[in-house]
Amino acid sequence: MTTVDIPASVGRFAVTSEAFMPWHDARHWIGGAWRHPLTARATLDIHNPRHGKAMARVHLGGADDVDAAVRAGAAAQRIWSEWPIRDRAHVLYRLRELMVRNIDELSWLVSHENGKIFSEAKAEVEKGIECVEYGCSLPNLAAGNQLEVSRGVACEVAYAPLGVVAGVTPFNFPLMVPLWMLPQALVGGNAFVMKPSERVPLSTMRLAEMLKEAGLPDGVFNIVQGGRDVVEALCDHPQVKAFGFVGSTKVAKAVYGRASLAGKRALCLGGAKNHLFVVPDADVEVTAENVVASFTGCAGQRCMAASVLLAVGDVDHILKAVRDRAANMVTGKDIGPVTTQAARDRIKGYVDAAEQAGASIVLDGRNASADAGGYWVGPTIIDGCTPEMPAAREEIFGPVLSVVRVPTLERAFEIEGANPYGNASSVYTTSGDIARRVMSRVEAGMCGVNIGVPVPREPFGFGGWNDSCFGAGNITGWDGYRFWTRQRKITSKWALQRDQNWMS
Ligand code: NAD
């Protein structure tokens, strides 16, 4: 049901500064048009975290909207899947051009709805473009295999679409995480129903319009706005064949179970508690720069952010350099706000609890502020944490570094290995031997040597281990293409081979 008061287009996000600006309401995108929910439900304000003011409203959907989007997807997918893969990829070539041309607009939009500073938002858009480029390359990668398995008999493998597939994304990367999923799924010949985080739905909306401008047929990409109800309806809908999720571990685990029970292929990426090993021979400057960038970047709201620093032996000289560098950061300029007031309270709660338990707050960002009304936490370093403290065990998701001092590498391995998460781990050293030992022992899917945010760049796949990922494989790269497609195995024989018994 479309009503007349919805503009045909969300249009450009015209803001080019941090000054507050309201924008468009967030509605569903179904069949290539903006739509109201079929049933009137609650709305939610979308806050610009820098100003703490509502810049838009999201209209929450439900199972009926999911069904409408899936039906639109199913109708469009039949035709889309008949396009040759090269033609499908050409839509992504055009999307790439639109994103490159409008990179500042997209970056400002990400910055406003998420709160991250402009340069971080631009890096996010650039990484999103890289994911689109991977999608462009798929026609060159996705040729199936063929072999003459006996005389005159050939076996062939081809990648076929699944049909209608779905993705659910978190608040911290409003544009990039949707682009972890879309290129492979679309080039693979599927229709997609996306449920962005209800806190940051605006960038995905702009992406929908750009995909249309790039030539994607109506109905191949759909958005249903909302929260838990929409996610559960996507898990349960019999026509949704695969379900990708990125968010916190608690939700990832629950929706993985629900989608799997409903017979879907599911890949659900969860939260993280990333450990950095720092040993005495580490380069002081490289380490300080990297560690600070890792725990403060995007205000610590990255699943790849450094969270626990395992200080092996006497590394006081390095810790001092880390502290000095972080202390020089200017809130509002070098570090943005966190997502909500509730997030700010949660982060401060972890720091308060560690202090009460006897740890030292050697850099305290609890009273930081910049623009009035925003949700600010400055860089914070807690020294002397024990591995049992919540600040050293649980995901804080803020610009907080918990330092745990250990006498040996062996003790560091024990602490890292006992943590249930397994997203990322890094070592800072100038010794190849130590680097190799750490890289071969840590319980983490993505590892770094002298790199604090070891995100595998395209074409390498992104994905963690243990409680950071439910389901098999990575969400980006070739694994992503495998996830969003199924293999058709064809065995052919065109002439009778009289000298063959088997399969004759
Ligand atoms: P979240 O789990 O609260 O929300 C993620 C998505 O799930 C949202 O779209 C939300 O609407 C939906 N959702 C929330 N509660 C739900 C419920 N009970 N049932 C069904 N759906 C529900 O996560 P967030 O706060 O948006 O994002 C931060 C989290 O995401 C952190 O834990 C972070 O580590 C994680 N994350 C992980 C990766 C990764 O690659 N592993 C990447 C980015 C973020």
Description:
The chain has 504 residues and is of the alpha/beta class. The protein folds into 2 domains: 28-270 and 468-488, Aldehyde Dehydrogenase, Chain A, domain 1, CATH 3.40.605; 274-449, 3-Layer(aba) Sandwich (Aldehyde Dehydrogenase, Chain A, domain 2). Helices cover 38% and strands 21% of the residues. The protein has 15 helices and 20 strands. It has helices at residues 63-80, 85-101, 103-114, 118-141, 176-187, 202-213, 228-236, 249-261, 284-296, 316-327, 341-356, 390-393, 409-418, 432-441, 477-483; strands at 28-30, 33-35, 43-48, 53-59, 146-150, 153-161, 164-168, 191-195, 221-223, 240-246, 265-269, 274-278, 306-312, 360-363, 380-383, 400-406, 424-428, 446-449, 469-470, 485-493. A 7-stranded mixed β-sheet has the order 14-15-16-13-12-17-18, with helices on both faces. A 6-stranded mixed β-sheet has the order 9-8-7-10-11-19, sandwiched between helices. α5 packs across α15 (477-483). The longest helix has 24 residues, at 118-141. The protein is globular, with a radius of gyration of 24 Å. Mean pLDDT is 96; it is low at 1-5. The structure holds nicotinamide-adenine-dinucleotide. Nicotinamide-adenine-dinucleotide is lined by residues 168-173, 177, 195, 197-198, 227-228, 231, 246-248, 251, 255, 269-272, 303, 395, 397, 423, 464, 468. Nicotinamide-adenine-dinucleotide binds next to α7 and α8.
